[in-house]
């Protein structure tokens, strides 16, 4: 579960530090009274932005959130409800892929980017592989 939370946090940090401040969330930060602190963090991180590839700023956050979401679902239903775990994973995958395809078809607002779709698949598969590997390495508990 810690890997999932770290992944989700890192995706959020990239958004907060390097995405355009015209995004809706920045007005929410102002409403919450943390806008100045966010602005300070963005200024402090601005020097690093030049060293970060554009795809990492634009596409990586969504992939990290997707990775974390997969790990959370797998963690919650690790030992029980295998059908429940499968259903929730299918819902998550279906939602994420549908959003990207919807953008390509101009059904969903946003800009379609094949890098987004590719990273979703890679990070989703990585979460599934990581969790499968972890299942074989963890000892079975008998109560």
β-sheet strand percentage? under 5%
The description of the largest β-sheet is: none
Low-confidence stretches: none
Shape: globular
Helix content: over 70%
Average predicted local confidence, pLDDT: 86
- State the domain count: 1
Structural class: mainly alpha
Number of helices: 7
DSSP summary, beta strand count: 0
Could you give the distance between the termini? 22 Å
SSE ordering: HHHHHHH
Q: Evaluate the radius of gyration.
A: 18 Å
3D architecture notes:
The protein has 143 residues and is mostly helical. The chain has one domain. Helix content is 77%, strand content 0%. Helix 1 packs antiparallel against helix 5, helix 5 runs antiparallel to helix 6 and helix 5 runs parallel beside helix 7. The chain starts with a helix and ends in a 6-residue tail after the last helix. The relative contact order is 0.13.
């Amino acid at each position: 579960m810690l890997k999932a939370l770290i992944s989700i946090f890192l995706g959020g940090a990239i958004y907060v530090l390097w995405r355009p401040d015209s995004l809706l969330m920045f007005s929410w930060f102002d409403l919450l009274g943390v806008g100045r602190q966010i602005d300070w963090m963005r200024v402090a991180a601005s020097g690093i932005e030049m060293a970060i590839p554009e795809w990492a700023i634009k596409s990586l956050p969504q992939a990290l959130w997707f990775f974390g979401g997969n790990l959370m679902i797998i963690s919650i239903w690790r030992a029980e409800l295998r059908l429940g775990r499968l259903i929730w994973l299918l819902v998550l995958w279906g939602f994420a892929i549908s959003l990207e395809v919807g953008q390509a078809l101009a059904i969903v607002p946003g800009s379609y980017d094949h890098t987004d779709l590719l990273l979703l698949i890679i990070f989703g598969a990585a979460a599934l592989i990581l969790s499968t590997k972890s299942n074989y390495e963890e000892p079975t508990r008998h109560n």
